[in-house]
UniProtKB/TrEMBL annotation:
<protein>
    <submittedName>
        <fullName>Uncharacterized protein</fullName>
    </submittedName>
</protein>
<dbReference type="InterPro" id="IPR046732">
    <property type="entry name" value="DUF6624"/>
</dbReference>
<dbReference type="Pfam" id="PF20329">
    <property type="entry name" value="DUF6624"/>
</dbReference>
Length: 168
């Protein structure tokens, strides 16, 4: 089992590295690059499903901090596999309740899943587009409480967060 877990940690880290390298293709003007991104995230989503079958949510206690974050990233990018995203969200919620996963990462995954379901997000982590040079979030359930809810899970206020997306 220990060897399996060590191999799993390496596999998850490698998947995250491939994701980072390929992410620039996600919104490419080239359909072939977009397709390459979709295939990669689909493969990763399938594999995460298998990992969750065998281990449950890959927590930092199980696979280490880097691999646990990689699992979250893979779930976050499984946009065309809502079943995988929903299952990851459910397992990650249990892990957060047990104190073994990040409430901040859970908030991002919750928003991403809600947006993919066509529903309003909670924390304003998902950006719909840019208007007059300013990033605009997908609609939120309680926009007036967004920054308060963000603070509860360790996410900076929306105005600070979106500076990262603003063209310099």
């Amino acid at each position: 089992m220990a060897h399996d877990v060590a191999a799993l940690a390496v596999e998850l880290a490698n998947m995250a590295a491939a994701d980072h390298q390929s992410a620039v293709r996600a919104n490419s003007d080239d359909p072939a690059e977009q397709l390459a991104w979709r295939r990669l995230t689909a493969r990763h989503g399938d594999r995460l499903g298998e990992i969750m079958d065998e281990y449950g949510w890959p927590t930092a206690e199980l696979v280490g901090e880097e691999a646990a974050r990689a699992a979250w990233l893979i779930a976050q990018h499984s946009d065309r596999q809502l079943d995988v995203q929903r299952r990851a969200l459910h397992l990650m919620q249990q892990a957060v309740s047990a104190g073994s996963a990040s409430p901040r990462e859970l908030a991002f995954l919750r928003d991403r899943t809600l947006v993919n379901e066509g529903r309003k997000q909670v924390y304003g982590t998902q950006i719909a587009g840019v208007k007059d040079g300013a990033p605009i979030p997908w609609p939120c359930e309680e926009p007036e409480r967004m920054n308060e809810l963000r603070a509860e899970v360790g996410i900076e206020p929306f105005d600070e967060y979106v500076v990262k997306f603003s063209p310099a």
